[in-house]
Amino acid sequence: QVHLVESGGDSVQARGSLRLSCEASQDATRLYCWGWFRQSPGKAREVIGRFSQEGQFAEYADSVKGRFTISRDIGKRTLYLQMNSLKPDDTARYYCAAAPPGTMCIGPLSADPRTSFDDWGQGTQVTVSS
Predict the structure, then answer these.
(1) Closest C-alpha among 72, 75, 80 to residue 36
(2) Among 27, 44, 77, 124, which is most buried by a count of CB atoms within 10 Å?
(3) What is the pairing mode between strands 78-83 and 119-120?
(4) Are 7 and 62 in contact (CB under 8 A)?
(5) pLDDT value, residue 114
(6) Quick one: what percent of the chain has pLDDT higher than 90?
């Protein structure tokens, strides 16, 4: 099991930027499926994007493509989410999740996250005002 801790959430104005971090409790070299999700009150959890296939590339949901970027620093055991051009609709609690070390993502980006992700952080709040 991997313990994940998110940080970096804040309140910002629309069109602003934030960078979220997700630190893993263990070596991240074999975290082949590692991603970001978000959830706002009354809505279902939404995938933002993930690293998959041994971390060779990141996939993104259409709602954030071109504005959000996911990156990793294996040495720091940290996954990042750089968010630019933020909109009020981006207001949500943001979660980091990982599949068991050595495990690939299962299914497409739109698949039920329970299919791949076993470990979740507590989340960090992002609020975007207009």
Answers:
(1) 80
(2) 124
(3) unpaired
(4) no
(5) 87
(6) 75
Alpha carbons 9 and 25: distance in angstroms, whole number: 20
Provide the token pair at 11: 């309140």
Q: Whole-angstrom Cα distance, residue 92 to residue 75?
A: 29
pLDDT in tens, 81-102: 999 999 999 999 999 999 999 8
9 to each of 100, 115, 116, 124, how far by Cα in Å?
A: 25, 27, 25, 5
Which residues have C-beta within 8 Å of that of residue 112, sequence separation ≥ 6?
A: none
DSSP lists the bridge partners of residue 35 as 50, 97
Provide the b/e sequence for 50-73 (b: ≥16 CB within 10 Å): bbbeebeebbbbeebeeebbbebe
Query: What is the Cα–Cα distance from 102 to 12, expressed in whole angstroms?
Result: 37
- Which tens digit of pLDDT belongs to each residue from 29-48? 888 899 999 999 899 999 99
Starting from the edge strand earliest in sequence, which strands make up the sheet with 18-24, in order? 4-7, 18-24, 78-83, 68-73
